[in-house]
Design a protein that fits this description.
The structure holds 3 protein chains of 3 kinds.
Chain A (H helix, E strand, L loop, with lengths): L1 H28 L5 H4 L1 H6 L12 E5 L1 H4 L4 H8 L3 E5 L5 H14 L4 E5 L12 H12 L2 H4 L3 H9 L40 H17 L2 E6 L8 H14 L2 E4 L23 H18 L12 H13 L2
Parallel strand pairs in A: 1-2, 1-3, 3-4, 4-5
Helix pairs in contact in A: 5-12, 5-13, 6-10
Chain B lengths: L1 H10 L19 H15 L10 H4 L2 H14 L1
Chain C lengths: L5 H15 L6 H17 L3 H30 L6 H46 L17 H16 L9 H9 L1 H4 L7 H8 L7 H35 L5 H32 L17 H5 L4 H16 L2 H13 L2 H24 L3 H30 L7 H23 L3 H13 L6 H4 L7 H22 L4 H7 L2 H18 L17
The chains are: A alpha/beta, B mainly alpha, C mainly alpha.
Chain lengths: 318, 76, 527
C-alpha cells in the first residue's frame, strides 16, 4: 500500500515538473511580446496575437489553400501593406469565426478576406486525427514553435539580431516544390449550387455580423485551386455573396491570374507553390491599392521590423 | 577428445578449449568455422551431423561437442 | 503508420490501460485482439492473409505432433533393428505436411512481393526470343509485415518438424505469436521457443517495467527525431541530384543514409522492445553496436540480427549439409584438400543466404546486388584470412592492438556505407553511377560549396553531431557490457529525472519535425 502511494506521488510530481518545464520553454520559444497579455496557449494558437497590436492592415482567414497562396512579405515589399494569414490546416468555419474575432480584438484590420471554400468543409468529414492534431497543438504549443530554438540561440551567440520577436512569414508557408497537374480536369457548367452545411452557415452569419459591427470590410475569396474548383461551388458562393451584399473574388473560373498549373503547384493542383503564391499576392496587393483603404508603411518608423522580416524572408528563399 | 581439440586448435587457435564455455555465444566460432568443424568431425569420426543438432548448446564448449559426437556415434 | 509516431504511442498507451484493467487470464487475449485491431487498422482486409498463415501453421503443427505421437507408440513395440525404418517412414509423412505448409506460406509472400518482379524478367526474356506474350503487371498492396511474419511462420513449422519445439495446442498463443503488434511491422523476427512463454504470460504491468519500457521507447524517438529525420533532407538531395555533385558529397550521402537507416531502424527496435517490455515480454535484440564490427561477417551478426540468424538456421546450415552439397564436398576433400572443400561448401550456402537476403529486402536488381556485394566481401574475407594472418606476422603487425582493431572497424564501416548505396538507390544503374562518381570524381574541394545546399543549416548539423556523440557514448558503454539503464535507475532521483527530462525535452525541442522537415518513412515496413 505504501509502495503504491509512493508511486502515485512520484508520478504526479513527475507530471508537474514536466508541465512546469514545458510551459516555461513554451514561454521562451513563442515569438512576440504579447504572451503576457493573452497567455501562452492562446498566443500559441492564434499566431496573429504575436504581432504588435494594431499593426495589421488586412487579414486572410482560411485553410492550407490560403497559407500556400498568400505571402504577406511579397505584398509588403511591393505595396507596403501589412497582411497576416490567420490559417489552420483543414480549418472549419466556426474556427474561422474565432480567428476573425481574435484578430479584430487585437489588430482591428480594415479588410478581412475569407477563403470561401472553407464553407464546404463538413465537420463530420474531418478525420479524427485532424481534430486530435488541432487540440494537441492548442494545448501543447511547443510542438508548433519548437524550431525557434534556432533563432533563440542566435540571441545567445549575440549576432545582434533578435529574430524571436519577429514572425517572418506572417502565416505563409513557403513551398518551392513543383509537382504539376498531369491530367486535365473536365468542368461541366451548371446552374446547380453545392450545399453548405448548416453549422457553417451559422458561423458565417456571425462573421458577417461581427465585421459589420466593427466596421471591417469582409471579402469572400476563392484562391486558385485546380483540384477543388467546380461550378457548383462557384454558384453557391456567388449566391451567398449576393445575399449578404459582399464582394466575391474568384480566382478559378477562366483562370484570371493565368496560373500555370503544370509548374506553379506543389501537389497537382491542390496547393500553389511559391511561384503561384507570388502571382496571387501581387494581385491582392493591387486589389487593396484600388480600395484606397490602406497606407504604404514601408518608410514608416513604426514598421521597420517588417523590412527586417522581408530581408530574412528574401534570404530564406531558395 | 584430444583429436577434437586438435581440430579446433587448427580452425581457431585463439581460444583455450579446455576452459571456454561460450564458443558460439561468445562468438569465437562463426558459422563458416562451424561448417569446417562439422566436415572435419564427419570425416574424422565417421558420423553424420544433422542440421537439427547445430544449436549453440551443442557447440558452446569442446566438452559439449564431444558429447554430441559420442551421442551421434551411438545412434548408428 | 510508424512505430516512431505520436499516433502509435497513443494507441499503445490505450492498449496498456485496457490490458492493465483486465483479469490476468484474459490479458493475453487483450494483446491478441489489440494485435488484430492494429493489423486491421494498417492493412484492412489483408488481415485475412495473416489469419490464413496462422491457421496453416497451427494446424500443420498439430498434425506433425500427432505423427510424432504415433511414431513413438510404434517405436515402443519395434525391435532395435527396425527402428530406423520406422523412423524414416514417419519422417516422410511429416515432411509432406512440412513442405506443403512451407509452400502455402511462401506462395503468398511470392504473390505479394515477387510476382511482378518475375513477370518483368519473363517479359524481358520473351522480348529477347521474340515471343509474342507479355505478362501484365498489376499493382496491389501487400499485407504489412508479410516478410516478417512469414519467416516467423516458417520457423515455427520447421522447428516443430525438427522437434525443437512442441506444437502448441493453444490456438490463441500461436496466433498471438504471429501477430503480436509491436513486432508485426518491422520485426525482430522472433522464434516460438524464444517468446512463447513470456508472450502468453499475462504478466502485470509493473511500475518498473512501465518506466523501463518507456525509457527504451524514448530512446528510439531520440534517435529518429533528432538524427534520422534531420538527415532525411540531406539524403534526399544527394540521392536525387548526385549527377551534379562531387564524389565527396555522394560519399557523404552514403554515410548520411547509412546513419539514417541505422537510427530509424534501431530506433524502431527500441520502441518495439520497449513496448513489449511494458507487458513483461522479452523480445530478442536486433542490433548490437554494428559499427564496431571488425569485418562484414561480424557486422551482420550485429545488424538486423534476427534476420541473420533466421537465414543461418533455416538456409545456411540446411543447404551446406544437404546431400548434393555434401557429395560435392566429400569429393573435393578426397581430391584436393579439406580447406578448399569447406570453403566451397560455405560458398554455396552463403550464395543461397545472400540471394535470399537481397531478395527479402525487395524485389529488384539493386537488392540482389546488395546481397551479392556482401556475399563477395564475406567470401573474399574468408579466402584471404590466412594470407592476412601471414602478412601481419611478417610485418610484425599485432592483430590484437587497438590501432589494428580501429583500422578494421573503419574499413568495415566504409564497406558498409558503400553497400548501402545499392540499398537506397532507385535502381542498380543509379547505384553503379553513384559509386563511379565516388571513385572517379571525388573532388573534396567542392564539398564546401555543396554542403550549404543540402537543405540543413549549421545549427542542424550541430544537433546531428551532438546527438550522434550521445549515441556513440551509449554504444561504447554497451560494447563494454555496461548496463546503462540499470546504472541510471540506481542514480539519485534528481539526477535520474534530470536525464529523463533532458531526453524528453531534447526530443520536443530539437526534434526535426514541423514545417521545413520531412520525416523518414519507416524503411523496413516496406520489406
Amino acid at each position: 500500500m505504501k509502495d503504491k502511494l509512493i508511486i502515485v506521488v512520484k508520478s504526479i510530481l513527475f507530471a508537474l515538473i514536466f508541465a512546469l518545464i514545458y510551459y516555461g520553454l513554451s514561454y521562451l520559444l513563442i515569438p512576440g511580446n504579447n504572451t503576457k497579455k493573452y497567455g501562452i496557449i492562446k498566443t500559441g494558437e492564434f499566431e496573429i496575437l504575436q504581432e504588435e497590436e494594431n499593426t495589421i492592415d488586412a487579414i486572410f482567414i482560411g485553410d492550407s489553400v490560403v497559407y500556400s497562396a498568400i505571402s504577406p512579405m511579397e505584398i509588403w515589399n511591393e505595396f507596403g501593406y501589412t497582411i497576416f494569414d490567420c490559417v489552420g490546416m483543414s480549418q472549419l468555419t466556426p474556427i474561422s469565426y474565432e480567428m476573425l474575432y481574435e484578430s479584430i480584438e487585437s489588430q482591428h484590420p480594415k479588410v478581412a478576406f475569407f477563403e470561401a471554400d472553407v464553407l464546404f468543409r463538413d465537420e463530420k468529414n474531418i478525420p479524427i486525427d485532424r481534430y486530435f492534431d488541432q487540440t494537441f497543438k492548442k494545448f501543447f504549443p511547443l510542438s508548433t514553435y519548437h524550431n525557434n530554438w534556432k533563432e533563440k540561440t542566435l540571441k545567445f551567440l549575440n549576432t545582434g539580431d533578435d529574430f524571436t520577436e519577429l514572425n517572418v512569414y506572417k502565416g505563409y508557408k513557403y513551398i518551392h516544390k513543383i509537382k504539376g497537374v498531369t491530367e486535365q480536369k473536365e468542368l461541366k457548367e451548371t446552374k446547380k449550387a453545392m450545399r453548405i452545411p448548416k453549422a457553417n452557415l451559422d458561423a458565417f452569419q456571425k462573421m458577417v455580423d461581427l465585421s459589420e459591427e466593427k466596421n471591417v470590410k469582409l471579402v469572400l475569396i476563392t484562391n486558385p485551386n485546380y483540384y477543388n474548383f467546380t461550378y457548383e461551388r462557384y454558384n453557391a458562393i456567388s449566391k451567398l455573396a449576393k445575399k449578404y451584399g459582399l464582394e466575391y473574388i474568384d480566382l478559378n473560373k477562366d483562370n484570371p491570374l493565368k496560373i500555370d498549373w503544370t509548374k506553379e503547384t506543389k501537389d497537382r493542383g491542390v496547393h500553389l507553390n511559391y511561384w503561384g503564391a507570388k502571382k496571387v499576392s501581387k494581385f491582392i496587393g493591387e486589389y487593396l491599392k484600388k480600395t484606397g483603404l490602406l497606407e504604404d508603411h514601408r518608410n514608416d518608423e513604426k514598421y521597420q521590423s517588417w523590412n527586417e522580416a522581408y530581408r530574412i524572408y528574401k534570404n530564406n528563399l531558395k | 577428445m584430444e583429436k577434437l581439440i586438435e581440430i579446433l586448435e587448427e580452425l581457431q587457435p585463439e581460444v583455450d578449449y579446455e576452459t571456454c564455455e561460450d564458443l558460439v555465444d561468445g562468438r569465437y566460432l562463426d558459422s563458416l568455422t562451424i561448417l569446417s568443424l562439422i566436415s572435419e568431425i564427419e570425416s574424422e569420426f565417421g558420423v553424420q551431423v544433422p542440421t537439427v543438432e547445430i544449436i549453440p548448446a551443442n557447440f558452446n564448449s569442446a566438452k559439449k561437442i564431444w558429447e554430441l559426437i559420442e551421442r551421434l556415434q551411438e545412434d548408428i | 503508420m510508424s512505430y516512431l509516431s505520436v499516433e502509435y504511442l497513443l494507441l499503445f498507451l490505450a492498449v496498456v490501460i485496457v490490458y492493465n484493467f483486465t483479469p490476468k487470464k484474459l490479458k493475453p487475449i487483450v494483446l491478441l485482439l489489440a494485435s488484430y485491431a492494429f493489423f486491421f487498422y494498417i492493412s484492412g482486409k489483408l488481415v485475412f492473409y495473416l489469419l490464413l498463415s496462422s491457421i496453416s501453421i497451427y494446424g500443420a503443427g498439430l498434425i506433425m505432433k500427432k505423427i510424432d505421437e504415433k511414431r513413438d507408440k510404434k517405436l515402443e513395440k519395434t525391435s532395435k533393428e527396425e527402428r530406423k525404418t520406422v523412423k524414416e517412414k514417419y519422417k516422410r509423412r511429416k515432411k509432406i505436411v512440412l513442405v506443403f505448409t512451407i509452400l502455402f506460406n511462401v506462395a503468398f509472400l511470392f504473390f505479394f512481393k515477387y510476382l511482378n518482379f518475375f513477370k518483368k524478367i519473363s517479359n524481358k526474356i520473351f522480348n529477347i526470343f521474340n515471343i509474342n506474350h507479355r505478362f501484365s503487371i498489376l499493382k496491389y498492396a501487400a499485407p504489412i509485415g508479410i516478410s516478417f511474419y512469414t519467416l516467423q511462420a516458417l520457423s515455427y513449422v520447421i522447428d516443430v518438424y525438427n522437434e525443437k519445439i512442441e506444437a502448441d495446442k493453444n490456438i490463441f498463443k500461436v496466433f498471438l505469436y504471429l501477430s503480436f503488434f509491436p513486432t508485426i511491422m518491422e520485426g525482430p523476427i522472433t522464434r516460438y521457443g524464444q517468446v512463447s512463454d513470456s508472450i502468453y504470460n499475462g504478466s502485470k504491468v509493473t511500475y518498473h517495467n512501465f518506466c523501463f519500457g518507456f525509457q527504451r521507447i524514448l530512446w528510439g524517438f531520440f534517435k529518429k527525431f533528432l538524427i534520422a529525420d534531420r538527415l532525411n533532407a540531406v539524403v534526399k538531395v544527394i540521392f536525387k541530384g548526385y549527377m551534379h555533385m562531387s564524389g565527396a558529397s555522394v560519399a557523404l550521402g552514403a554515410i548520411a543514409y547509412t546513419i539514417m537507416l541505422y537510427m530509424e531502424f534501431s530506433g524502431t527496435m527500441d520502441v518495439v522492445i520497449g513496448s513489449a517490455e511494458v507487458f513483461d515480454i522479452k523480445i530478442p535484440e536486433n542490433f548490437r553496436q554494428p559499427f564496431f564490427a571488425k569485418n562484414i561477417t561480424d557486422f551482420w551478426s550485429r545488424w538486423h540480427i534476427s534476420l541473420g540468424t533466421w537465414l543461418k538456421d533455416y538456409i545456411f546450415y540446411p543447404v551446406s549439409l544437404s546431400k548434393p552439397v555434401k557429395k560435392l564436398t566429400t569429393f573435393l576433400r578426397k581430391h584436393i584438400n579439406n580447406r578448399v572443400s569447406s570453403l566451397v561448401m560455405g560458398a554455396i550456402a552463403l550464395f543461397a543466404v545472400w540471394s535470399l537476403n537481397g531478395l527479402w529486402h525487395g524485389a529488384g536488381y539493386n537488392f540482389l546486388a546488395f546481397g551479392y556485394y556482401h556475399f563477395v566481401l564475406i567470401l573474399l574475407g574468408n579466402i584471404f584470412e590466412p594470407t592476412i594472418v601471414k602478412v601481419c606476422e611478417k610485418l610484425k603487425i599485432n592483430r590484437k592492438s587497438t590501432i589494428y582493431k580501429g583500422f578494421q572497424i573503419v574499413k568495415t564501416s566504409l564497406l558498409v556505407f558503400l553497400g548501402e548505396i545499392f540499398f537506397r538507390a532507385i535502381n542498380l544503374t543509379t547505384a553503379l553511377r553513384m559509386i563511379k562518381r565516388i571513385f572517379l570524381h571525388f573532388d573534396i574541394t567542392s564539398i564546401g560549396s555543396e554542403i550549404p545546399n543540402l537543405g540543413l543549416d549549421v545549427k542542424d548539423f550541430i544537433v546531428i553531431v551532438v546527438a550522434l556523440i550521445v549515441v556513440l557514448v551509449v554504444s561504447v558503454l554497451k560494447e563494454h557490457n555496461k548496463n546503462i539503464r540499470e546504472d541510471v535507475s540506481k542514480k539519485h532521483i534528481v539526477l535520474r529525472w534530470a536525464i529523463y527530462y533532458a531526453l524528453i525535452f531534447g526530443i520536443l525541442i530539437f526534434g526535426a519535425y514541423g514545417p521545413g522537415y520531412e520525416p523518414v518513412d519507416p524503411i523496413y515496413a516496406d520489406f
